[in-house]
Amino acid sequence: MGAERIDDKGWERLHTRLRAGDCDGVVTDCWAAKEKVRDIYLTADAADPDQAQQCLDIAIEWCDSEPDIPELATLAKTLRRWSTEIIARHRTGATNGPVEAAIIWSPVRGVFHVADESCWAGGGRVTWSDVFQVRGRSGSGC
Asked: In three state form, how does the secondary structure of 79-137 look?
């Protein structure tokens, strides 16, 4: 959930739980980094690559400011590596989201599968049994 969707009661719960369980601030820093990455895609004008670049730079800088958190170092590295593609989304409006949404990966067996129309007919919900059924294993269908 994004910060813009949290009401006052939600902020209170979030801060209470972070104070109770995040004594070193790692979860808080990672959550803030996630919000900064979201800002890249929530720019006021989705077709403004300069604004998106500024948000990307801010996200990378935030991650770099916490060198003791390996997840943030990895995120900064990934953002740098994919920066051209990230900004291209704002230049062209193109996205591979629909393609990615149709690809299913089973972490148990390392199986990749492109969901077919029969799976989407069930309300767009694809289960692990669908993946195994398509791969010749038993499954209950969509």
From this structure: HHHCHHHHHHHHHHCCCCHHHHHHEEEECCCCEEEECCHHHHCCCCCCCHHHHHHHCCC
pLDDT tens-digit series, residues 105-128: 555 555 555 555 444 444 444 444
pLDDT given for residue 77 in this prediction: 96
Q: Which residues contact 58 (CB under 8 A, 6 or more apart)?
A: 36, 39
Contacts of 73 (CB under 8 A, 6+ apart): 63, 64, 67
User: Is pLDDT at 95 greater than 90 in this prediction?
Assistant: no
How many Å apart are CA 87 and CA 91, to the nearest integer?
6
76 burial (CB, 10 Å; 0-12 / 13-18 / 19+) is buried
